[in-house]
Structures are given as C-alpha cells and as structure tokens.
Amino acid sequence: MRILAENQVQLLDPSELMRPEPTFADKNPSKFRDYSMDTTDPLKERVRQTYRQMHLNQTVDFVKGRREHWLKFNTIKMTVREALEKLNDLVDESDPDLDLPNIIHAFQAAERARAEFPEHDWLHLTALIHDLGKIMAFYGEPQWAVVGDTFAVGCRWGDSIVYRDESFEGNPDGDNPAYNTELGIYQPNCGVDNLLMSWGHDEYMYSVLKHNKTKLPHVACNIIRFHSFYPWHNGGDYKHLEAPQDAETKKWVLIFNRYDLYTKSEVVPDIEALWPYYQTLIDKYLPGVLEF
Ligand SMILES: O[C@H]1[C@H](O)[C@@H](O)[C@H](O)[C@@H](O)[C@H]1O
Ligand SMILES: [Fe+2]
Ligand SMILES: [Fe+2]
C-alpha cells in the first residue's frame, strides 16, 4: 500500500500552509524570484536571455519532437548518485537566486524537507532528485529546453508567466488559431496531467521515474512533474483547465516549493557526510542503474 497522501496532509499544521513567509530563508523571502530587467546586470541578463529563447522556441511541434526523442530512455544508463554528481557541473542559467552548482541546491532542499518532516523519508528523496532531469543539458539539450519555469503549450500563454509581455514575440504558436485561444487544444477542466507542457526537467524526470518503476508514491512523482509550473501553482493561471483532483497535487507542490525556493542560499551543506543517509533512500525507492 502506498503512503497515503491524505494521512500526510493531516499531519500538517494548516497554519503552516497559510504562512506566506518561511522563517528559514537566508534572505528576505520577497527578494526571491526577482525577474525585473536590468541590461547592465550580467546575472539578470543571463536569466532573461534563457527565457527569451525558451518562449520563442517552445511550440507544440517542438515539445512533441523532444518527447519523441527523450521518452525512449535510450540516452544513458546510470545510478541516481551518478546523475546527481553530474549536477556538480551545472549552473542553472534561468535562476536569479542561485549561482552555484545544482547538486548543492538538491541537498539544500532535501535537508530542509527532512528537518520539517523527519518521518516522510519519501519527501526527502523527492527533494533530492527533483531537478535531476537537468542532466539533459549534458546530452545536447540547450538550457532553455531544460531549466526554468514551465507553461502549457497548445493554448494561450498564462498572464503570470515571467517576461510574458515581450518574450513570446515571434513564437509561431501565438499566431495559430488552433493554439492561441483560452482552451486551445484542451477540453475545459481536463486536468493538469493532460496538458502538453513546455519541454524541461520536470516532465522528463517524472517520466524517468515512471519508466524505471520507482517505489516513490505517485504524489512524489507529481510534485516533480509540476514543481516548475509557477504560472499554475503560484500565478493562478490555467484554472479553467484544472480538474478537481489537481487540488491535491497543487497542495503538495506548494509545500514542496518552500524547500525548493527558499533554501537557495550560499550556505553549502556537507554533501559527503550526507550521502550515506540519502543512499539508503535511493536503495529503498529508486535503486540500481536507471535508464535515462
Ligand atoms: O530557475 C528555476 C530553476 O530552473 C528550477 O529548477 C525550476 O524548477 C524553477 O521553476 C525555475 O524558476
Ligand atoms: Fe526545478
Ligand atoms: Fe529546484
């Protein structure tokens, strides 16, 4: 029997969920996710350019092509630890809050989840591996098709997407009447798992988990699948495409978001010392050599 998501939710103090500002963040929470433009600031420009390429090039056809390529899972075979260690060499170009290798972020997020929910070991591992799909960047995928916030393709772009007003300029789907309406290719309330998402590390890692028959609970896979869908879980867009069961997914994505976003800091955890604990979780939920 799977760990019941409902049980887990009851363990939460509802005031935790309501509290907008985490007390553990190293900087003022309102300072995270600053996508304001400043062409003289190299980090801000790096972020903006990554999204510009993403928003220009992520079309329905592009996404279908990348799914066709990656969802054969014939790129590489490796263990979770090997994949995580690859993230030593990845700095996420879409991220205004972190200029450090992504493996540090993985352990920062996991350790925070562990501190808040010591009994939910599945959540610790979920946090550790949530960005593992970024290994695509080492196998030919440009960062704009790997990192960053995601959005649905095949319908009108959500208003809360970062840089929404200018960065989709020239994306052909914007002129296509099949794709540029409120519903586009979707039925009302079809549910987020029926959306064709812009191609990136979320959907890829979700599919890798399912392909490799993870023992992680389904809600863990969904957290990973939608953690970058900020225009939905944070911006309030796409409500007309939500199905009732998406409320549960959203609730967990928002809990998880606290560990994902607000732990980003310059404080580097002692990764060597932490490996033995996390290896036991990998062996429990996602053992051996995986097909990516
Ligand atoms: O820049 C970040 C980063 O790429 C994260 O991994 C992603 O999940 C976030 O949505 C994004 O804002
Ligand atoms: Fe991510
Ligand atoms: Fe992350």
Describe the model.
By secondary structure, the protein is mainly α. 44% of the residues lie in helices and 2% in strands. α6 packs across α12 (246-261), α7 (121-129) packs across α13 (271-285) and α10 crosses α12 (246-261). The longest helix is centred in the first third of the chain and has 16 residues, at 42-57. The chain is globular, with a radius of gyration of 18 Å. The two termini are 27 Å apart. One fe (ii) ion binds next to loops. This is Inositol oxygenase.
Report the helical percentage: 40-55%
Distance between the termini: 27 Å
Instruction: Give the averaged pLDDT, no decimals.
Output: 93
Oligomerization:
single chain
Counted up, domains total 1
| pLDDT < 50 runs, ≥5 residues | 1-11
Largest sheet: 2 strands, antiparallel
Radius of gyration: 18 Å
> Which ligands occur here?
1,2,3,4,5,6-hexahydroxy-cyclohexane, fe (ii) ion
Number of helices: 13
User: Can you count the beta strands?
Assistant: 2
SSE ordering: HHHHEHHHHHHHHHE
Name the shape in a single word: globular
CATH top-level class: Mainly Alpha
Strand content: under 5%
By CATH, the topology is Hypothetical protein af1432
| Proper CATH architecture | Orthogonal Bundle
Structural class: mainly alpha
Lateral arrangement of strands in the main beta sheet: 1-2
GO molecular function: inositol oxygenase activity; iron ion binding
InterPro entries: Inositol_oxygenase
Protein name: Inositol oxygenase
Cofactor: Fe cation
